Amino acid sequence: MSIHPTAIIHPGAEVHEKAIVGPFCIVEDRVVLGEGSHLHSHVVLHSGAKLGKNNQIYQGASLGGIPQDLSFKPEMETELIIGDGNTIREGAIFHRGTKKETPTTIGNNNYLMGNMHIAHDVKMGNHNIVVQNSIIAGVVEIGSYVFISGLVAIHQFAKVGDYAMLAGCSKIVKDVPPFSTIDGNPATVIGLNSVGLKRAGLAPETRAAIKSAYKIIYHKGLNIKQALAELKSMHSSLPEIQYIISFFEKSKRGVTAHRKIGSGSDADE
Questions:
Q1: Residue 82 sits in a domain of what CATH number?
Q2: Mean pLDDT of successive 10-residue segments in the chain (269 residues)?
Q3: Are 153 and 184 in contact (CB under 8 A)?
Q4: Of residues 120, 125, 175, 191, which has the active-site annotation?
Q5: Which residue range(s) make up the domain with 258?
Q6: Is there a cis peptide before residue 103, judged by omega within 30 degrees of 0?
Q7: How many structural domains compose the chain?
Q8: Is the pTM of the predicted complex or chain greater than 0.90?
Q9: Which one of the listed residues 64, 138, 143, 196 is annotated catalytic?
Q10: Is 121 a catalytic residue?
Q11: 247 occurs within a structural domain
């Protein structure tokens, strides 16, 4: 175990023998720090923070603090659960859940840049990138392979589907459909995340099917119920199409609308 002499470790914390705790870090009670995880310096792991293997946590990050919820009782023993292989950069602030059954949860292999905030009860999947100074409000759900650009603000209770791309300074007030690119204040869908889908290795026929599905949803003049009925009538076995249908059907806030930006827009890409 490598613990710098200036670090403060509560005796009730569980620090793996192969973890690294750098200078001036504070690790509170009920914390778990997994094998290979590294607190670089001046990191605070608050009570209830549980980190898996091989996470890199940089200077000034504060993980697992009490929720910014006026109804929260500080004596509640809630949790922030972080998986494996995440990079969390300088000054990031993540809060634990408001209830025992709703921990704030972050998956694996996410790259979360400096000064960004994840609020209470958020659920985030895997392989996401969140850029500097973005804000994710409470009870938000983020899928996997999502790219959230800088200075994005996501409203409480919103959901972001897999492989979505959120452009810089976007204001997210409704659910973001999977595979899409959104932009604006408030944000609208401006096209598919074509580059992200190619980089992810989705087959050309799969990308074409996703494109066709969104043409039915956004370009045929149908309401959402009619568009989903048409998609279902096509009897597609592709999991991506079934995911799109399920995402729209389960949306409670409503799904972000489409905005076409001139004839040269990538809305039809």
A1: 2.160.10.10
A2: 94 98 98 98 98 98 97 95 98 98 98 98 98 98 98 98 98 98 96 96 96 96 96 94 98 91 41
A3: no
A4: 120
A5: 201-268
A6: no
A7: 2
A8: yes
A9: 138
A10: yes
A11: yes
